[in-house]
TrEMBL record:
Function: Removes the formyl group from the N-terminal Met of newly synthesized proteins. Requires at least a dipeptide for an efficient rate of reaction. N-terminal L-methionine is a prerequisite for activity but the enzyme has broad specificity at other positions.
Keywords, comma-separated and alphabetical: Hydrolase, Iron, Metal-binding, Protein biosynthesis
UniProt-listed SUPFAM superfamilies: Peptide deformylase
Record: residues binding Fe cation: C131, H174, H178
A molecular-function term among this protein's GO annotations: peptide deformylase activity
Listed Pfam families: Pep_deformylase
Catalytic residue positions: E175
Domain of life of the native organism: Bacteria
One GO biological process term: translation
CDD domains reported in the protein's UniProt record: Pep_deformylase
Family from the record: Belongs to the polypeptide deformylase family.
Protein name: Peptide deformylase
Amino acid sequence: MSVIEKLTKSAHLIDMNDIIREGNPTLRAVAKDVTFPLTEQEVILGEKMLQFLRNSQDPVMAEKMGLRGGVGLAAPQLDLSKRIIAILVPNLPDKEGNPPKEAYALQTVMYNAKVVAHSVQDAALAEGEGCLSVDREVPGYVVRHARVTVEYFDKEGEKHRIKLKGYNSIVVQHEIDHTNGIMFYDRINAKEPFAIKDGMLVIE
């Protein structure tokens, strides 16, 4: 049975055993574009990737399935060298602890996503980045573009162009990197992991 056949079986829920770890060559390969119309498997895969992220953010499901929390997942992390990424960024409660009006700041499956324009300004998350394919902490600022314009296709083959900034921008860049064989720690300054370039935005 092929990887995609296993992942898209109706009873299968993606879990940590499906996610490959650093050292696996698929994580360093440049993934192939998908062609349209998508196969049924490619559509189902996108939905299952999004479902994994939902499960990983649900404390009960995450504990039951032994999942690490995630906001993004790329097909290469499932040992599939295809340009498919799923993004699920929750909105946080307000200062009074009230739940957000919209549950998610970004909830989408992107096919053939690419950055087509970006800001001159760089940005990094204050607490650094983690990755479901990396089982260790790698301290340092992961330097990315503060703002990006991303083009991608949805499962219907419709083309979209969105502008992203802040945390959403960082998450999408991290996942697009996976489809280009780039790991987050490639973007940390090896000599000075916490160096701040002029004008760099540090996102709390």
